[in-house]
Amino acid sequence: MSNTTSDDSLITTEVQADSNDDRAASAAETAVAARDLNVYYGDERAIDDVTMEIPEKRVTALIGPSGCGKSTFLRCINRMNDMIEICRVDGDVEFGGKNVYDTDVDPVALRRKIGMVFQKPNPFPKSIRDNVAYGLKIQGFDGDVDKRVEESLKGAALWDEVKDQLDSSGLELSGGQQQRLCIARAIAPDPEVILMDEPTSALDPVAASKIEDLIDDLAEQYTVIIVTHNMQQAARISDRTAVFLTGGELVEYDDTAKIFEDPEEQRVEDYITGKFG
């Protein structure tokens, strides 16, 4: 993978050109679509009438200042907001041609197809093997569990580091390894979409770089939707970028190069160049 720096970009960053350009050059079907989506916490609106289509097998970044609704939007996709009592969702989130908020949709089954990786690594107090196999056992997987564990750890670029210590606790791994373990756990049930809520914010730069490289690889097989406060990271790893601003408004959504080099909205340029946020 070669790196290039865009002189026209509104931020200074090294962009991973090869793989992103290859993905951008090919057409993509829609993996997830929001239609007139509004989200409320009690009387407070967190997402304001968002409509957008997210392409499959691409990396889509959600950026914006704290409190703009990007994590709330992410959690709508696999109905994690169901766990917040005061949260109310209006509008549609379509996945596989169906609104995930239809009454006949099982949220647990939905989350097998739309996995999630959180900001802070959260391995279970179990062995590395049992961490990865956890979701498989919950869903009654009747295949070769050890084979799937190995495939998932390889998919998370962790196998070579842990293959001789699969019975050791996942809590004994470094922070970066723990996050890759959580990614392995997320992909083990064979999802179609992986949601990532600031997956590198708690990691050191070296560990964060490994996760970024991994995200680029994952997009060959999965749709990746990532929330990040790091605009350089969004520019490096994503194909599409959505900019949320105060009040849960989706202000602009376009190819990442367009967002960072020539945004349509002045507010987006002001945010990217650090005038606010």
From TrEMBL:
It comes from the Archaea. Residues 32-272 form the ABC transporter domain. It holds the Pfam family ABC_tran. The keyword Lyase does not apply. The keyword Ion transport does not apply. GO terms for cellular component: membrane. GO terms for molecular function: ATP binding; ATP hydrolysis activity; phosphate transmembrane transporter activity. Transmembrane segments: none annotated. Gene3D superfamilies: P-loop containing nucleotide triphosphate hydrolases (3.40.50.300). InterPro entries: AAA+_ATPase (IPR003593), ABC_transporter-like_ATP-bd (IPR003439), ABC_transporter-like_CS (IPR017871), P-loop_NTPase (IPR027417), PstB-like (IPR005670). CDD domains: ABC_PstB_phosphate_transporter. Keywords: ATP-binding, Cell membrane, Membrane, Nucleotide-binding, Transport. GO terms for biological process: phosphate ion transmembrane transport. PANTHER family: ABC TRANSPORTER I FAMILY MEMBER 17 (PTHR43423). This is Phosphate ABC transporter ATP-binding protein. The lineage of its organism: Archaea, Methanobacteriati, Methanobacteriota, Stenosarchaea group, Halobacteria.
